[in-house]
Amino acid sequence: MALGDQRLRTLVAAARPEGEGLSAGQLDDGRLEHGDVLEMAPLLRKVIAARVRDSHMVEDLVQEALTRVIAARRRLEPRTLAPYAVVTARNLVASLATSESRDRRHAHRLVDLSQPTLPEEAVLRREEAQAINSALERLPRQEREALLAHEVEGEGTTTLAASRDSTPGAVAAQLSRARARLRVEYLVALERSEPATSRCRSVLLALSAGDRRRQRDLDAGAHLLECTWCARLSEQLLDRRGAAAVSGEVRIPIRSDADVVTARKQGRELARRAAFSATDLTIIATAISEIARNIVMFAERGEIVVSLVGENSRQGVTVVARDSGPGIPDLERALRDGYSAYGGMGLGLPGSRRLMDEFEISSEVSRGTTVVMTKWRRDGR
Questions:
Q1: In whole angstroms, what is the distance from residue 369 CA to residue 352 CA?
Q2: What is the 3-state secondary structure (H, E, C) of the chain?
Q3: How confident is the model at residue 347 (pLDDT cuts 50, 70, 90)?
Q4: Comparing C-alpha atoms, which of 218, 363, 356 is closest to residue 282?
Q5: Average pLDDT, stretch 348-355?
Q6: Which residue has better confidence, 351 or 98?
Q7: pLDDT of the residue at 29
Q8: pLDDT for 14-41, tens place per residue?
Q9: Edge-to-edge strand order for the sheet containing 302-311?
Q10: What is the pTM of this model?
Q11: 204 φ, ψ to 5°?
Q12: Residues near 80 by Cβ (< 8 Å), separated by ≥ 6?
């Protein structure tokens, strides 16, 4: 059953940055880009209808499942897409049942305008704190120390690199791996049970890190269908729509010009939380655009991670851009003022370096390039 234009517009728009509308041409592009996901609608409808009787609710859950799959698809290896869609549908049905049960239990309190703090809320807070501590203990010592120094003590990647005889880029990569592992271990701790199989942690880590190659090697899609334990946790790892509000970090896979726009917008919105001036927000967005466009032009694919950072009394934004492209054989020339290898704004790497307060680049021919740049908020903005 084909989806109508209005439903398609709703689904595709839900996966786009806020405030960005869809023209008729963009609607056609959305149908082409997400056609493989939208074709899963009959399958998802069958999965949901087997458990939900209300036909209107079935359609709502199908649309929600499709929206979540579209939002997560760039973090998934293609063969994992359909199994993830199925477990997402199952999880939505389970969540609906839980919500309805909770509503029935608390229906009598709807007339009580002064509801007291429930005892279970304090218990939940304790359980979450215990889960975080347990997850941190499961991290390798070096990753745990780096993550705590960065997130709790406010040490920047430059400071951490100097104390570890490393580079900011290498430290940023280590922090990214640590966060991915921490997300997995946190959810495992909340489950209060060990993974069902020896493959579970590896599959969940591949999903958390968005490592498509590892997902393919592990046949993660088949595992999600077979393992209800991992299926239950997978959506929480991949549904990152609220992650930036909690972690102060956004990750954007870069493969096309549309991703350049997404990186610019999401980076700007995250920087806005640090109360940068309008001028600095434009500067940060421009630097992100230039680096992201370099990935599209020369490496075809990569990733940009934008995160809020604090060091001493300063607040700022760090941008880490990585790719596995051909590398830059002559860094000195590439960083020369006025040099741009494409006909864009002409800023390129040297322009981005001028715009940001800190800038470091490392590149290896045939291995790829990593750029780490930071902008600090100025007092009196």
A1: 15
A2: CCCCHHHHHHHHHHCCCCCCCCCHHHHHHHHHHCHHHHCCHHHHHHHHHCCCCCHHHHHHHHHHHHHHHHHHHHHCCHHHHHHHHHHHHHHHHHHHHHHHHHHHHHHHHCCCCCCCCCHHHHHHHHHHHHHHHHHHHHCCHHHHHHHHHHHCCCCCHHHHHHHCCCCHHHHHHHHHHHHHHHHHHHHHHHHCCCCCCCCHHHHHHHHHHCCHHHHHHHCHHHHHHHCHHHHHHHHHHHCCCCHHHHHCEEEEEECCHHHHHHHHHHHHHHHHHCCCCHHHHHHHHHHHHHHHHHHHHHHCCEEEEEEEEEECCEEEEEEEEEECCCCCCCHHHHCCCCCCCCCCCCCHHHHHHHHCCEEEEEEECCCEEEEEEEEECCCCC
A3: low
A4: 356
A5: 86
A6: 351
A7: 46
A8: 444 444 443 444 444 444 456 788 888 8
A9: 249-254, 302-311, 314-323, 368-376, 358-364
A10: 0.52
A11: -65, -40
A12: 215, 216, 220, 221, 224
Q: Which of 24-38, 92-106, 352-366 is least confident?
A: 24-38
- Residue 151 pLDDT: 79
Q: What's the CA gap between 176 and 249, in Å, rounded?
A: 10
Which residue type, as a one-letter code, is found at position 332? Answer: E
In the numeric block, which tokens belong to residue 256?
Answer: 């096309």
In this predicted model, which residue has the larger pLDDT, 253 or 35?
253
In 3D space, the residue among 245, 103, 125 whose CA is nearest the CA of residue 190 turns out to be: 125
Lowest mean pLDDT among 311-320, 343-352, 367-376: 343-352
Token readout for 58 is 């079935």
d(Cα 200, Cα 152) in Å, to the nearest integer? 29
User: Phi/psi at 190 (nearest 5 deg)?
Assistant: -65, -30
Q: Which residues are bridge partners to 250 per DSSP?
A: 306
More confident residue, 173 or 279: 279
